[in-house]
Specification:
mainly alpha, 0% strand, elongated
């Protein structure tokens, strides 16, 4: 219990030094948004193609979400590592001190790890939520309800992300929610017509 409290205390300290929570919030919202929109594209592609096997929809959806997760984790890790190293090197140069093993250095490394995890998990988890109806569908032959339910979940998830962004910005949460839903609707419409025309 004591070690857990110490870990929480360190995380709070690192957050103050490296601004972890603000950056992680931004990555979470941005990548969950990307994850939902990408899965909408996958769903619409399968729907227009007439795919009626839940396993195919699930395998393509999960493969896509895993790829997004790995891409997010690796991309955020490399980007944050480069940015944090540059900032730490600059601060070390100005202060004429090696900051690698100081609290600032440890906070910087913690930020890299936490932000990379958030960046990797957010699109994967958002996509997984949208795919729940296909997990429940099993061997059902008529997947129309699963497609509609998944798209509904996608729009609901986008609306929730909009509310989250509205709360962060102290703006009108409903307006943000409607803006994110609009992005989903536009993706559905464009994907549908691209599929039909193809």
């Amino acid at each position: 219990m004591r070690s857990l409290l110490e870990a929480v205390s360190y995380l709070r300290e690192y957050d103050k030094l490296a601004n972890i929570s603000e950056i992680a919030r931004r990555y979470f919202a941005m990548n969950a948004f990307d994850g939902v929109l990408t899965i909408i594209g996958v769903l619409m592609g399968n729907f227009v193609a007439g795919v009626s096997d839940a396993r195919i929809v699930l395998s393509t959806g999960l493969a896509t979400s895993v790829a997004m997760g790995v891409s997010g984790l690796w991309g955020a890790y490399l980007t944050e590592s480069a940015e944090r190293k540059r900032d730490l090197d600059e601060l070390s140069r100005v202060t004429l001190t090696d900051l690698t093993n100081t609290r600032i250095g440890r906070a910087s490394r913690a930020a890299i790890f936490i932000v990379a995890i958030v960046d990797g998990l957010s699109p994967f988890l958002a996509a997984l939520i949208v795919l729940i109806p296909f997990i429940l569908a099993g061997s059902s032959e008529d997947l129309t309800w699963a497609y509609y339910t998944s798209l509904g979940l996608a729009l609901l998830t986008l609306f929730s992300l909009g509310l989250f962004l509205g709360r962060i910005s102290h703006g009108r949460m409903i307006v943000y929610g409607l803006k994110t839903v609009l992005a989903g609707v536009v993706s559905i419409v464009i994907s549908f017509f691209l599929g039909v025309s193809g």
